[in-house]
Amino acid sequence: MEKRKLSFWQIWNMSFGFLGIQMGFALQNANASRILQIFGADVHELSWFWIIAPLMGLIVQPIIGHYSDKTWGKFGRRKPYFLVGAILASIGLVLMPQADIFIAFLPALWVGAGFLMIMDASFNIAMEPFRALVGDNLRTDQRTLGFSVQTALIGFGAVVGSWLPYALTNWFGVSNETLAGVVPANLIWSFIIGAVILIISILVTVTTTKEYSPEELANFDNDTEEVSEEESSSLMDIFEDFKKMPTTMRQLSWVQFFSWFGLFGMWVFATPAIAQHIYGLPHTDSSSTTYQNAGDWVGILFGIYNLVSAFYAFALPYIAKQLGRKKTHSISLIIGGLGLLSIYVMPNENWLIVSMIGVGIAWASILAMPYAILAGSISAKKMGVYMGIFNFFIVVPQIINALIGGPLVKYAYNNEAIFALMISGFSFLIAAALVYKVKDVDDVVKIV
User: Which listed residue, of 48, 202, 332, 345, carries a Cα 20 to 30 Å from 215's Cα?
Assistant: First the structure.
């Protein structure tokens, strides 16, 4: 048997929920550090709060992947998971910027960090099944297109999420001014709007996408590499699956490590780095109007790199057809690394747009190329658990950066967060070099 060939719009609807997920994720990425600083966190403490995100991914994604592989019911195999994840993430989005209403019970900083944890766990519940759904539903010759469409939707969602606070203030007059310890209204309303769009977009995928039954998937499965034909039923089998991971996956792990080490540093320290290095503010300033303007501009910059990634994603299948997936990914990472490094020499905030164009090219490739390469080496019966295990190589570098990033900023960089962004740029360049060690199982000509 062969999987049916899906139309572009069927593939689009299948991944449409990612638009809402990434909108919420972008709101978090661009504004969590800013919110935590408003609630009282010092610059060097930010990475410690952000460690919640990769820890949730490390714990949640393999478990969700394992159980979604085993699930089949009235609502499907993967769909129940990302629907529940979306509902929980929406709750976190609404309440995190309003954590100060709980100060009768706990300090706002800790309540905010708690809701950050809820959001991260929930985003991970929703994200992993979406990755596995593309592997489940698409033929080999459509997978690069599938992950590229997913990347485009991620980009569009992130643009809206990143630009929303700036748009509410500058286009609709919602205030971005704040008192000490209080999140401005434009951020609160942005998070509420993000929660609503997240639920709506997930429902589009749930109502328009059909999943293959386990029996159908078993007929499609070619057991491509190193995976036992015997179905596992124990959660502990995740560790056995980890030991038996495909060779391609092991090689990609190092590429992922340095890619995501760099991304985490950018997400955590972009706002304080740009506020200090470009706007000339002291590292202790987290409440002035200039600081809020810097935070809004970081949102614009994050939106720009996501917008670039959305359009570049559509070009990736064609570029990969000409150059091969490995070379395409390596070149994209080099451009992104140079983009991050260029921030140091940019004369003002407007020139940072050029830097973010480079980051957007790398981001699109990071979200698509490794998964397109990986999917060809995984058995359909293990798609969910291996996509979850693959997340180890995303979250472990983030945990390491979270542990060492803050102390480095405080003690090695003298609280100058710009140097954290420089390390991120060099990390991208290392990842680009490691791509060439990866074995791409599928024939590039056939899959694109």
Answer: 202
